[in-house]
Structure formats: C-alpha cells, structure tokens
Batch of 2 targets.
Target 1
Amino acid sequence: MTATMPINDPPPLLTVDGLTKHYDRHVGCAAVSFTLWPGEVLGLVGESGSGKTTLLACLAGRLTPSAGAVRFRTRAGAVVDVHRVAEPERRRLMRTEWGLVHQTPRDGLRLDVSAGANIGERLLTAGERHYGRIRATALDWLAAVEIDQARIDHRPSTFSGGMQQRLQIARTLVNRPQLVYMDEPTGGLDVSVQARLLDLLRRLVSDLGLAAVLVTHDLGVVRLLSDRLIVMRAGRVVEAGLTDQVLDDPQHPYTQLLVSSVLSV
Amino acid sequence: MTDEIQSSADGRAAPGYSYGYLDAQTKRMVRRAVLKAVAIPGYQVAFASREMPLPYGWGTGALHITASLIGPDDVLKVIDQGADDTTNAVSIRRFFARTAGVRTTEATADATVIQTRHRVPERPLGPDQVLVYQVPIPEPLRWIEPREPECRRMHALEDYGALYVRLYEDIAHIGRIATSYNYPVMVNGRYVMSPSPIPKFDNPKLDRMPALQLFGAGRERRLYAVPPYTTVKSLDFEDHPFEVQHWETPCGLCGATDSFLDEVIVDDAGGRLYVCSDTDHCARRRAIRDGSATRAPWRDDTDGPEVA
C-alpha cells in the first residue's frame, strides 16, 4: 500500500476519535483520541484498572463504545468505521486486517486442538481449503516463533506459558494482518522468557512492517518496542508523546510516579 | 401389512377427527415450519415440539413431521439403521397404522413417506417420495461452539472456519478425515447442516436427490429441509477430498458390493458376517437371485417395480 503513497505522508492506519466506554455509571475509558500510522508501534501504559484493556477491546471491535469512533484504513484503501460497519464485515476485518494477542494465551488459543490447527484456523476462516498448504504455513510459523516443529500436533495445553504465548502470536500473525493489538504479551512470564519474547516481537514487527498497539504496565517493554507512548489513568489519557521523550522527561505527576517506581538492578 | 393393527374396520380414521394423531393446530404449526425450512434449505427452523407418546431420542421430531404430512392416500415405510424390523421402526410403523390407519409397507419403492433413523435407503428415491429423518442433535456446530446464540450467529454470518479445524485435526492425527457418520454438509452453498447420524456412505445420496428430505429434532425443537434437486456437498479439503466407506467383502446374504454393510457377530468363536443394513434392498436382491419371486416373499400387497 505504501508503495503507491508518497513516502513521507502515508495516510493514518487507525484514527481514534473521542472514544468513550461506560460500564453503567463507571468509566471504562473516556474521550481517548489518537492516530496510528502504518508500521508504528504505540505503547499504552497505565496502572491496573486504568482502562487499557477496555480501550483495546473497543479498538479491536470486541466491545461497542458508548461514544466516539474508530476508523481503520484497510489494505484496499477504504476507511471503515469499525463500529458502524456490518457485523460480517467487522468479523472479516478482525481476522484479516488486524489481530488481538490476549493477555492470557488460554483466551486466545483453542486448547483442545493441536498447535497446527490453532495456527491454521485463521487461514481456514479466510477460506483456505488445502490441507498441505495450511500444514506448511503452520510449520513455517512454528519455526518463526521458535517452537520445535515436531510439536505441531501437540495440544497447546501441553505447552509452557511462554510457548503458549508464542503460539498465540503465530496464530494471530499467520495471515499477515496490518495491525496487531497486544494486551500484556509478556505478562506472567519469567524474565528470561520475557526477553526472548520481546526479541521475537521486535523482529516480527520490523520484518512484517506491522503496526501495533501494545498494552502493558512494564515500562521496559515499551522502551524496547514502542515508538510512541500513551499514559492512561482512570480511563483518561494523561500524557502522550514519543516514548523516549515521555519516559525521560515525564510531565504529568502520575507519569513521574510511574517512571520513578521502576526498579533498576 | 399382515403385522399391522387396524384402528377401525375400514383402516381409515373416523370422520370428523384430525387425521394422523396430531391436532389440527399443531399440524398447521409444523407445516408452516416445514414450508419455511423448504424455503431456506439447510436452515434450522424452530417449532413448538409437542410431547409425543415415545421418548425423546426415539424420533419424536420426525414423528411430528410424518404426522403432519401423511394423508389417507399415503403409504408409510419406517426404517431404523436401514432395517424395517427393529424395535424403533416397528413401533413407529404400528403407531401410525393404529392412530391414522395409514397403509404401511416395507418396500422402498412403494412408500410415499419414509421415516428413517440413521440411514438413507439404497434404492434411489423418486420425486413423489418424502424422506423424514430422525435427528438427535440438529446443530452441526454443537461440538465446536457450545453457545447456542453464537452458533446461530455463525450460521447467519457463514462463519464456518472452525468446522474445518475438526477436519484438519482428523488428518493431522489419523492421516485422513476419520469422521464416519453425521458428516457435516453444505446445503445449496449456504448453510452447513448435520445430515443426522447417517453414515457418510449415504452423504452422496443427499446431493440433488429428487425426493424431498425433511429433518426433525424433537428434543431440540428444530426442523430443517433439503428440497428436491438441491446441491448437498460434504465438507472436505482440496487435497483430501471427501470419501465414503468401502468394504473388502460383499454382503454375506445377497452378495451386494455397492451397499452399506453391517458387521454381525454370528457365533461365540468370533465368526462374523457382513450384511446389507438395508433389509428391503437385501431381501429383494435375494428374491431375484433365487429366481422364485419377483417380489419379496412376505409382501402380500400390490407389486412395486423391482430393483435394477
């Protein structure tokens, strides 16, 4: 898509405008606006309960926001309002144009079918009906996420937490989405596994030219992966900017607290 | 029809009473649902299933449909796993003979309405026949998606990718698609449908069948239909096409090589015999082979055309 566009001025991939989600009288997230360009990684940090996951679910089309709009530019160049488009089209977009990596791999995987079937499902849903090709693609992706290819017929329930998370990433990226939403992809993993996963994510993001929205409360992760950063608190954006700028020179008291709370060894 | 009990002297229902067990309101309701099902091939239509004088799982859904469709001019055949002489088949046949006084038969060719459990007759059906299937679980997505609203949404959106995951798993673990009965089919290129627990051997017979096919699930309160000459395609992969079962031995009784065979244990020494599951088909072939009769020996009513 970018080949036909002037290199300096690509149209935004995702435009979020005044996104608000109320749960009854509680605020999930309020008046969130930002723009994401192709190939860009946006970090979304904030304390537990600050509305990060709610925002992500609204962006990914899994939750209907109370107000505001999410506009997504498809590969074909059409700009669609994610929450106004008909459900069949939204489901298609969710499976071809973007993906969601859940915080808990168990939410994003089918635990009762093999790793190969997990990777193949998005292809099957997209209409692929050739077993041999699906199998070959699944093997390629297992290698890409550093899982032993011999385990293609094993169920993810027999995998370690880190392998499950990598399998989930393979399953999400198998049909090359433009954008991937990641909800704490390294949460719950031990530090050495986190480091490997981060390396892997960084490589995949740059190799595939993926755009990503990365929810985390680990500032090390955003420092490593994201170009820009949004800091949320109580459902609102309190600070936004380039990652290094926000982390090195935090302006909002909450961001200052967040940055100063990081332990350094 | 010597084994049938007649309800009234002339074998017809008494005038002034609703024909075929169900009351007129219920029959109207079921017929409306049937019409809707025929209009949307493969789509599961909800209907208000009534309590029937046999247990759920014995064919209450099909019984509703049969009772709503048969008239005094119909000839009813009931089969269970292909056989006319099993408990389920005999009970239902006698039920209609008794409550409706309808004529019954064991000859596939003579029947106008055939109620079936788990088989399609070997003899091709014609445009003047109706095949009514007994269905235990109408939802082909049931073992993939346990939530009913989500299943309905998947049907509405033609979201059938998850069904192929099951086929993928079969090939990955066993090397071929191992599902051998209740093999899901795509009807008219739109709805995925459970063909009821018929062996996949029978799936090709569903495709463009001249007879009307109706499916009733009493416990689940759903019915669906495949109108005559509708395309019915079994789900498969391009490099693993759909296949039916094959047997290395012919039928031990009639010698048929093209019918669905049941394995029967014949003695305590592990001796076994493969025989046609369609008893009418098998008996007719034997009668022809023996040369004695052009019709099955037990039948004393009018002749139907013989098997080819």
Target 2
Amino acid sequence: MFRNYIKIAFRNIRKNKLYSFINIGGLSLGLTACILIMFYVSHEHSFDKFHEDSDDIYTLRAKALFGGDTIFVQNFSAATGQMVQENSAFVDDNIRIFQEYKPLIIKRTGLEPKSFSEEGFFYTDPNYFNFFSFSLLKGNPETALKEPFSLLISEEMANKYFGDENPIGEILQVEKDSIYNYTVKGVIAETPSNSSIQHKFVASVSSLQKTKGNDGLFNSPIVRGGAFKTYFKINDATQIEKIAETTNRLSKEGNSESKDLFFLYPFTETHLKFSRNAGIGYLDVFPLIAGLILLLALINYMSLTTARASYRSKEIGIRKVNGASRKEIAFQFYIESTLFISLSFLLAGILSFLLKDFFFNLLDINIDTAFFLNQNFILTLALIFMVSILIAGMYPAMVMASFNPIENFKKKTRNDLGGGLVRKVCTTLQFIIAVILIIGGITIREQMSHLQNIDTGLNRSDILMISLEKSMGNNIPAFRKEVEKLPAVKGTSISGYPLYGGYDMFYASSENGEPMALPFISIDKNFFDVLELKWKLPPEDPFLPEQPKKLVINETAIEKFKLKNDPRGQNIEMAGAQFEVVGVVNDFHYSSLDSPINSLAMMVSKSNSSINKFNSGSLYVKYQKTSSLPALIKSIESSYVKFDAEKEFSYQFMDDAFNEMFKSEQRLAHIFNIFVVLTIIIAGLGLLGLATFSAQKRIKEIGIRKTLGASVFQITSSLSLDFLKIVLFAIIIAIPIAWLLARNWLENFVYRIDLNIWIFLMASFATMFVAVLTVSFQAFRAATSNPVKSLRTE
Amino acid sequence: MIKITDLEKYYKTEEVQTIALNKLSFEVKEGEFAAIMGPSGCGKSTLLNILGMLDDPDGGSYLFNGIEVAGYNERQRAKLRKHNIGFVFQSFNLIDELSVFENVELPLIYTGVKPAERKERVHEVLEKMQIMHRRKHFPQQLSGGQQQRVAVARAVVNNPKIILADEPTGNLDSSNGNEVMDLLTELNEAGTTIIMVTHSEHDAKFSHRIIRMLDGQKVTENVLV
C-alpha cells in the first residue's frame, strides 16, 4: 500500500509541474530561511557549552557604583579567585584570565624571522586545560603553563610562524614595553566558533608577573575589581547566592567602604547576556519570524493541496468504492505531504549549505561548518521537519478523507470541494504576515537611516582614523608631518582613542555637585577643527587649553556637575588634582546612540606623543572630498611603514566606525530584508497557484461569458477582484498590528523616527502591486483563451 | 441476498425537498442478474448507491445477506463493501495516475492481500479479460472498451458476491458494449449476483429480470427467464 502511495505521489508531482514547483519551491525557500536562522540562533545559544563541566562553571561579575552611575565590573584582582575558593566550600576550582587588549608585536627569531601584530594574547593559570575543555595537540597540559614565559600557540599560529616545523621548544619574541622571549610549550587545537574565549596565544600567568609594569596587578591582596576575568567551578548550583555573599563579605573585609555588589553568572549564558555581538533582543525575534515564514510556506502547501482536491476527488471516490477507509485515504495524503516536505527539506538543506557563506557574510558572523552536526541543531531541524509534516499533512488529509464518493462521481463540474473558506482565511493570514513584515522592514530601514544621518554635532565625513601603537614611539610627529604634506590632506589631529572607539573614565567632582563618573579623552588642539565642533564658550586665549591642568568640557558636563552657565575659570577635581575649565563645546555624540549624550572632558596636549604614552592612539586625517582614496591610503601606508615596521598599518573611516555601533540593528535589517523578499515570493507563489486554480475552475464560466460577449478586461477584472478583496482585507488587519509592533521596537531607541503614514501606504501599495500582477496575469491568460476549447472540455 | 422494504431517500436543497426513492421494495436472490430501468431522474442511481453502501437511506429497511445495514455508519459500510461488492461505472472511473495493473490491484490492497498473491490474482483476472498485454499501460492509452474491461476486472478481482453496474455500456459503441455484456453474463453464470442500471433495452435483455422505475417507485417487474 505504502509503495502505491509513494508511486502515485511521484506521478502527481511529475504530472502537475506548476503546482509541484510552487509547493516544493515555496516550502524549500521557507525551510532554507528557517534552517539558516535556526543555525545562527542555535549557534548563539550553544556558546561555551562544549566544555565538559560547562554547567558548573560560573563567571564572577560585580556592580560597582561610580558616582551616580552603576558600572558592571568583569575583571577582578589577582587574589579574588583564590580567596573566594578558600572561603567557600561550594567552589571547587578557580581560574584567572588576563587578556592583552591591545595587539602585541610577535616575532620569530632565527633563520627566517617573521614579525606580526597579534591579538588574542591571554595569560592564565596552569589549570587552564583542566578547567576548560580546550585540547592541547602538542605539549603536556599539566605542566605547559607552570613556568614563567611559557607560551602555547594555536594551530593557526603554529602554521603562521613555524610552517611544517615542530614549534615546541622554539622561541617567540613578544614586544610590550620591553621584549620578552617566550618558549613555545604546546600547540592548542583551534577554538570552536561558539567559544567566548578566542585565544591565539596562551601564556603562563607567572609571565605577566615578571613583565615590566605589570607587577602591580598582583599587589592587591583583597577581593576587588582588577584586571583578571575570574571563573569558578562550583559543586552545588543552588548555592551561587551563598558564594556571592562570601565574595561580598570578603570584599568588605578588604575595604569596608566598598559598595561593590558581586554576583555569579553561568558561563554558558555570558555570551548572550554580555557580548556586544550577541544582540539578544533580536535573537528571540529571529526564530519567531523564521517560524512565520515557514508557516507561510506551509499554508501555501495546504491551501494549494486542498484547492487541487477537486482534481483528486475522483481518485478518492474510486479508492473509497474499492474499499479504502477514511483512515487509509488520510494516511495516503499524509504520505504525500511527507514526501513533498522531505523533498523540500532536501532541497532546503542543499540551498542552506550553498547560501550559508553569503548569509553569514551578510550578517557579519562566523560559524564553523562543523556546527551543522551539532546535536541541538540537528534536534531543532528534526523538530521543524516533524512539525511541518504535522501541520502541512493534517488539513489536506482531513479534507480529502472526508470526501463523499458519490458526490465526487456525480459532480460533472470541478467544483470547489476542499474548504474554500479555509483557503480564503489562509490567504488572508499569509498576506497579513507579508504586510507586517514589509512594514517592519521599511521601519527598520528608516530607523537605521535616521540613526546614520542624525546630527551628531560633528562632521565625520572624509575622515580616516589611523591607529598608532606604542611601537611608533617618538616617530609620531615625523609621521604626522609626512601625512600633512600629502596634497589630499586638509588637516590632522591626534587623540588618545579613535572616535566611537572608547574613552577613559575618571571619578570627578565640582565644588557644587556630587562626585560622578566623567568620560575623558586626550586630544590635540586640531581636534575641534578637524571634527568641526562648535564652541559654545571658546577659551579666552586660544593657547590656554594647551596649558597644564586645563580642561575643555561639553554642555552636558555644565549641567551634570552643576557648574555656572559660564563655567570658564571654575575647577573640576579629577584623579586627585584640580583642573580648570577653559572652554565649552556644544554637545556632540562621541559614543553609542543607545543613550543620550553624557558629559565629556577633553584635555588638550601640546605634545603628540604624550597622548599615547599609556594608550595607543589615533591619527585623524581629514582629506579632500575629491581625492582618490586608494591613492591617499597607499601614500599614508607607505609613510607609516617607514616609522613603524612592527605594527601593521590599520585604518578605519570615521563613518564606518559610527555605523559599526549599529551592528545588531544592521544585522536585523539584513535579515529582515531577506525575510521580506522571501515573504513576497512565497505569498506571491501561493496567490499564483490559487489564481491559476481559480481560472481553471471557472473556465466554463469564462467560456460562456465570452460567448455572450464579455470583454477580456471584464473577465480579467471579475477574476482578479475576488483575490484583491482578500489582499485588501489583509492589509486593513495587518496595519494596526504592524503599527503596534513597530512602535514597541522603536521604543528601544533614544533617537527614533516617527511612524509616518507613508510607511504603511508604501507597504500596502507594494503588496497590492504584487497581488495585482500575480492574479491578473493568470486571469488575463484565462480571459484570452479560446471559449470553444473551454466549453468543449466540459 | 438483497431485500429492500419501503426504502426512502430525500434530497434537500435550501427551498425544496426532492423524493428520490419513495417506499421502494424488491428482492434480488443470490445468483440473479437483475436490470433496473427507468427515465433519467427516476432514482436508479440513488438506489444503486444505497445498494452499494456508498450512501445511506433516510427510511425503510435494507437487508444484505439477512443483515440489516440501513443504520450502518460509514466505517461499517466500508468494511462490508470492500469484501462483498464490486462496482462498474458508465465512465469507467479508473485512476489516471495508475497503470492497468495498479488499478486492478487496488481493491486487493485495501483488503490486505499480500503482494505475491495480489500479482497472481491480478494477472489471472487480466488474462480472463484479455487485457494482460495492456497491463503496463495507463487508462488514457486505452480505448473505451478496454477501459471498461479493466473496470470490470477491478470489480471482480476480489471475488465479490455481487456486482453493481451503473450503465456499463453507456460510453461504449455497440461492439464494445456487447463485449462487456458478455463478460457480465459470464460472471453471472459463474455465480456472481449482478444488479445493473441501464437505459438500454438491448442490454436489459441480458438479465433475468427487469425492474422498471418512475419517480422513485417501482412500476413493473418483468421476469425474462
């Protein structure tokens, strides 16, 4: 019986090519979207779960009060981990990780010297491989991190520096303030893409202790904030509150004035909770939308299958007359649905594999291909498969099985047997989803463009930011001079940070205000001109800001620190010293648009190199709009390498740095664009199928009408109107829903667009356009067919 | 074999109620070949559908082999039908997507016959109907006469006790029609009860008895043998 069902299903697929194409094509597209999205979402949810003891690992975090602001602390003193473990019976093990947050210059000496600027340099305790489940390909995991200046390198780095040679025992020079020789003690297997710890170099923590300027990191014997990420392995998950209490107690014992509030967070959840790339808010939305798209495709399938029911009614009748029970007929149609969905799944699998790189590039994410075999992902796929079969198979099976055989034989015309109303509801639902997604897509696009074009109080166009590392040292003025000589360069400025790339924070107070956190950047005097900042209260003497202990502040700082309307001459106490305010600039956005502009203090330095004495800095280059960028960048690079042979030349456009801040929104926008296109294609395909069916069903009617003198236009519009009414109805329902959803989403933004009526009009128009095109194409074909032929078929 | 007493069937539309069968009574004995005749709309097909347990009556009694089946639900009717009744239709009603062999095999699938036995029985009946050489063809590739022979083969493959034929020659030319009537006669001679609805006096003559109907009622009954 089974074979018979499969056979007839395959013959039906072959015989009805258009329907099969619409069904399998639509389902495959929906499933592909679903698979790729679930691939991404499962990957995000799988972070750090590959560690054997992942459920027992917790990271230490703290909330610290910094003036009126709460700051989340994620790094702690060197002593913290061990002290907590010694004082809590629920902690079995702890580990510290210190990550170099600036690239280091690493050099292989000897016959073939190679030097690179590298990120991902970690220092950690010897129990690294015991604590986490990273695997060491070469070397002894027990002893590899015991000695100072022991270094483990990733497989990729081993290949980069040593090629086919055995790196064990070889020396790598690491340049910080001085040059240190590290002995390679092992090679670590590449970290999976779902690891929040992405190491390339892992050095023993004892090396850090012996590195110049870092011994201070180990001096504090108390529990407090510091430089080390601290992880615990605990033996009783119900006791994490107790461990936090112990930590708080220890912190108070060390410093009775401490207001820090410590807490433990499950390691496997830290990525979603704290990583900037995770975009957790949208991670919940993606599966929902992927589910909607799949539902759309499944509705198409159901609705087309039942629409075709009348074509199958004779077959069902014959089967029933020959002894088939309702159950057997239902089973047959379930088998057919299963076959359709399996084929679509297969196609979707191939499509997903082919499109995955494009998709990941679009979203700017990196996922190991091996993740396709992840157990949870496969389970999710199996679930999608089962649910699809259940949903898509159920309704057609029910409709088909309930056919009355006599009715089927008696009816000479192909009437609508299979739930015309249900089909109308389905089509309406589809178009509601489509319109909501289209409105969503337009809203996101508009909001993104609003954010990108918002008046940030400065002119960020035509500015290149070139990173300056310590390795350039005293060569900075000379380099800058060369850059300034280039004809395309209008001006330069030096700052301690690239704009939107960070700032320092100081605890500051004025005579009138409460102490609070004050964002702070070191700049030179050109900063104001290059960024075209506007003075609210310029310094009385243009050279005044360059004097020691002087500050330029922004407007918000006046308000926050309760300064006079003209604060020039007033003092702000910062890091234990008094600084005089000598000028005020209009507010400008110097960091994320997630929150309103905060106060800012700028210290103007005379000397170029003093700015990046402690930090690496950035050279801002304002260029002529008309200049050839590749040529300019090339010229700057060729000067750069003359003055810094170690650190690779790297630059960023200020515009790009600004846009980078909306990465998760941009990701959402990209996914939404895909969704919108898919929705339109799938809903359009569904409508095409139904319109074709409707035209076929009414072919006799069309023939009679034509014989009686109806024009092609009259017939086309009479056929199209039914469908367009449905679409119009869907639009009317979708608009308020979409409006609510869009308004809620926009509330996440401090700077947001108003929901203009044209967004809704445009979405409605686009939907109507697709619908009219699809429906009238079929209707026109039917209307222009020869009536003699259609009447003869009866 | 079949005994109906005061059988009634109504069709209701929104405004009117049409009486299709009006207290109809007759009996068909085992091994008999009965023809039912009458003008269009007299209730012949409705009667055949009820006799074939495709439909249920609104009143009266229907004894099948001594069992009252008038109150049976769809599942019960389907069960009784698949073991006892074969159908032959005017429009053949073959499944276009299945080959000749597969069409004939269908009733055996639904009665749960094993594949090897199915093949044997289908071949046997196809030989008998002289369409063995066409077994791999699809219905559209056959002439009307051949299609009806396939339909008859399908009706008898399960060895039903009774065959209900609804104008079996209605779509055939006379020579093909005669062939089909000869087939039915052979089956009847071999012991199968046959009830045939027909417009054709010529075909009716192949039967033992003609029941004539008008407006849902029996008008006359002529015994031919």
